[in-house]
Amino acid sequence: MPTFGMEFVPNYPPKDLINYCKFAEDNGVNYLWITDHYNNRHVFEMLALLADKTTRIKMGTGITNTFTHSPADTATAIATLDELSDGRACCGIGPGDLSTLPKIGIPVEKPIARLVEAVAIMRTMWSGAPVNTPNNPVFKFQGASLAYKPKQKNIPVYIGAQGEKMIETAGKIGDGSLINASNPKDFKVAMPIINKAKGDKKFDVAACVAVSIDNDIKKAKGAVKPVAAFITAGSPPPILARHGLDPNVVATIKAALGKGDFKTAFGSVNDAMIDAFSIYGTPADINAKIDGLTSLGVTQIVVGSPIGPDRYNSIRLIGKYVIK
Predict the structure, then answer these.
(1) Using one digit for the tens of pLDDT, what is the confidence trace for 282-320?
(2) What is the pLDDT of residues 162-186, one digit of tens each?
(3) Strands 279-281 and 204-213: what pairing?
(4) Is the distance from CB of 160 to CB of 88 less than 8 angstroms?
(5) Phi, psi at 176, each rounded to 5°
(6) What kind and span of H or E run contains 40?
(7) How far apart are CA 260 and CA 189, in angstroms?
(8) In sequence order, which ranges of 153-216 are alpha helices (DSSP H)?
(9) pLDDT digits (tens, 9 = 90+) for 1-39
(10) In angstroms, how far is CA 251 from the centroid of its own chain?
(11) What are the backbone angles phi and psi of residue 302, rounded to the nearest 5°?
(12) Alpha helices in 4-98 (DSSP H)
């Protein structure tokens, strides 16, 4: 059986986020993953609040990046979270959000090299050793170290991945991966890459799935449409082709979202897009689709936005009927 995580975007007041996350913990969820974008509440401040208000659930960034944060900054933030949570911290990290970084003038250069260097630096800093990397192409550290150690000896590092090269990188350097995919077609491609790259080490394959659960299947489908629109617009051409999606319709959605024309964007989402980039329906529907992912090797299901038309009710349904 897989473990279960839940992803939250901190785009609503902190008190609401805390209540959702506490409710998730009460309903058996194993991991909290909080997204990191400059335009939402700050991820590490939210995680600190959650560490104080929860007791059991593991938590981490879902995901942070190596462009807006130095690896030294991320290392000390995660180590602090590990202290605050009494050893429950994880670090989800990836190449960065290509839809937001250019808006703040950050060129997305050498994303894989930056990521590989950053993970190695963070692990060294968590160990208490100084970092000396004067010959690194990106991060040239000279004796940097933390003045304290985190609670855990080895903080788990999850690599956010979607493209094949990043999935391979996740297998090589990560303790786990956070793969933005909801469809078995994507994991049939990803799993052989991961298995070859990870070798014999233990590795947690986490599927970040856009989920909408409700006893009313029409409500569940309606709630997931906007999310499917954004995922469709942000997916690279190889993934769109894998799912046989019409590039003209995709272009319409992308253009409409760019103009803030949500009526056109959401109205252009078709069933093929919803099936490609989300799972929705009743608890029985959700369980059947999860079984399709775990049969391919997925070991953690991360329930992502929208969760459902009524977030509290959807978390309750997941706890009662999906987490076993």
Answers:
(1) 999 999 999 999 999 999 999 999 999 999 999 999 999
(2) 889 999 999 999 999 999 999 999 9
(3) parallel
(4) no
(5) -170, 175
(6) none
(7) 34
(8) 164-173, 184-198
(9) 899 999 999 999 999 999 999 999 999 999 999 999 999
(10) 25
(11) -100, 110
(12) 14-26, 43-53, 71-84
DSSP 113-169: HHHHHHHHHHHHHHHT--EE-TT-SS---EEE--SS--SSSS--EEEEE-SHHHHHH
User: Cα–Cα distances in Å, from 209 out to 46, 92, 113, 213, 300?
Assistant: 22, 15, 27, 12, 10
How many residues are given for the chain? 324
**What are the structural domains, with CATH classification, of the chain?**
3-322 (3.20.20.30)
* Sign of the four-CA dihedral 93, 168, 206, 174: negative
HSE at residue 104, side-chain half, CA atoms within 13 A, is 11
Alpha-carbon gap, residue 239 to 244, rounded angstroms: 9
| 283 contacts 316 by C-beta, under 8 angstroms | no
Q: Smallest Cα–Cα separation from 278: which of 218, 216, 230, 212?
A: 212
Cβ count within 10 A of residue 297: 16
Angle between helices 71-84 and 111-127 in degrees, nearest 10: 50
Rounded to 5°, angle at Cα 109 from 105 and 110 = 155
- 35 and 10 in contact (C-beta within 8 Å)? yes
